[in-house]
Each structure stands twice: as C-alpha cells, then as structure tokens.
C-alpha cells in the first residue's frame, strides 16, 4: 500500500481514543501517524526490511500499551500508538504487492521481511499493488470519515493524504516508467545506492 494509505491507517487506529480518552487523542494520533509512516523511511535502503519489523513492532507494542495504560501521559500514549501504527504498517505490507518497480507484473515474492523468521514473507495481493485502484478505495474508505471526525491539524493531514494518494494512483504507471530514466542520471560514484528495482 502507498504511504498516504499507511499514514491514514496510523490516524485511524488512534481515532477511537477521541471517544475513550479525548485528552490523550492528540498524542495517540501523532504517534499513530508517525508509526504509520516510519517503516517506509527505508525506501532507498533495504526497503521493506531495514525499518520493517512485522513481529518486532508487535512485541514492542505490548509493553508500550501496558505502560500507557498504567502511566497515561502524552509520551507513553504517543509511544504506544507509534508501535501500533508501525505494526499495522508492516502487517498491511503483507497484503499488498511484491517489491518490484512494476508490481502489477507480479514477479516478486517479497512483500515484507520478517526478521523474527529470518525470511521474506510473500505478498498476498489483496490490494494488488501500491497505488492500485483498490489502494485508492481503501484510502478513501478510511480517510473520508476521518475528515468529519478529526480536528486540525489531523483533519488537514488526512485531506493531504487523500490528495497526494489520488495523484499518485493517477500517475503510478508513468512514475514506474520514469524511475529508471531519472535514476539513470545518478553519477556512477553513487549508483551503488540506487535500489536494484530502479535500474534497467
Ligand atoms: Zn512499508
């Protein structure tokens, strides 16, 4: 799934706190949002492996949620939802497409790396690939209700994710064509840092 979808899922997992403990909702929303985004900071370095821990984040979330329940302050609540957002992200990657430049080709069997098992988990392709029409449908389904429930700045972030996600879906296949051209201009000295999937 694309990053805007992950970001919105991070917000969505924290939104119930608005009803349960509204004073901690901003911390949970910020934590969930950052946790939803954080794993994909490895986009250019060991993508879906370096910062993706489908088991590790789940193990970290348990004591973090416990600590937030026992000592509810903004920091513990924010940290707990960071791990919840990050585990949601890594689990969701499993249900998307494979790690390849044109994932609609379905040639990659790498969805997300599970460090606990020491192996790549294969993609289930319920959402065929990031930026697919179904990915957009998932984003819309989650983000539109959030526009009515959340207050700023989170409402604006959800709206921004909708705009960016919609644009990305519209350009997804053209961007895949463009990537090898753009990365082809990277000087030889830095070519080693260009992920394999961006080379032709
Ligand atoms: Zn990811």
Essential attributes:
200 residues, two-stranded antiparallel ribbon
Care to describe what's here?
The chain has helices at residues 3-14, 17-20, 25-37, 56-70, 74-94, 133-149, 154-183, and strands at residues 112-114, 119-121. It has 200 residues and is mainly alpha-helical. The chain has a two-stranded antiparallel ribbon with strand order 1-2. Helix 1 (3-14) packs parallel to helix 6. The radius of gyration is 18 Å and the shape is globular. Zinc ion binds next to helix 5.
Mean pLDDT: 92
Q: What order do the helices and strands follow?
A: HHHHHEEHH
What Rg, in angstroms, do the CA atoms define? Answer: 18 Å
- Percent in strands: under 5%
Largest pleated sheet? 2 strands, antiparallel
Structural class, from helix and strand content? mainly alpha
Task: Choose one word for the global shape.
Answer: globular
Count every helix, treating DSSP H or I runs of 4 or more residues as helices: 7
**Bound chemical compounds:** zinc ion
Topology:
Elements: H1 3-14, H2 17-20, H3 25-37, H4 56-70, H5 74-94, E1 112-114, E2 119-121, H6 133-149, H7 154-183
Antiparallel strand pairs: 1-2
Helix pairs in contact: 1-3, 1-5, 1-6, 1-7, 3-5, 4-5, 6-7
The chain binds zinc ion (ZN).
Summarize the structure.
The chain is an all-alpha fold. 56% of the residues lie in helices and 3% in strands.
């Amino acid at each position: 799934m694309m990053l805007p979808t992950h970001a919105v899922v991070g917000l969505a997992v924290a939104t119930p706190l608005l009803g349960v403990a509204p004073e901690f909702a901003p911390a949970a929303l910020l934590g969930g949002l950052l946790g939803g985004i954080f794993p994909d900071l490895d986009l250019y370095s060991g993508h879906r492996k370096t910062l993706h821990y489908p088991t590790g984040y789940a193990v970290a979330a348990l004591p973090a949620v416990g600590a937030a329940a026992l000592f509810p302050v903004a920091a513990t609540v924010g940290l707990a939802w960071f791990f919840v957002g990050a585990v949601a992200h890594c689990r969701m990657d499993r249900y998307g497409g494979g790690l390849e430049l044109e994932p609609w080709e379905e040639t990659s069997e790498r969805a997300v790396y599970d460090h606990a098992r020491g192996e790549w988990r294969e993609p289930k392709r319920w959402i065929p690939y990031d930026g697919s029409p179904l990915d957009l449908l998932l984003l819309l389904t989650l983000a539109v209700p959030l526009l009515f429930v959340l207050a700023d700045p989170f409402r604006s972030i959800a709206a921004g994710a909708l705009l960016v996600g919609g644009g990305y879906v519209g350009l997804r296949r053209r961007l895949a064509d463009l990537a090898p051209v753009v990365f082809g201009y990277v000087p030889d000295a830095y070519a080693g840092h260009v992920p394999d999937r961006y080379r032709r």
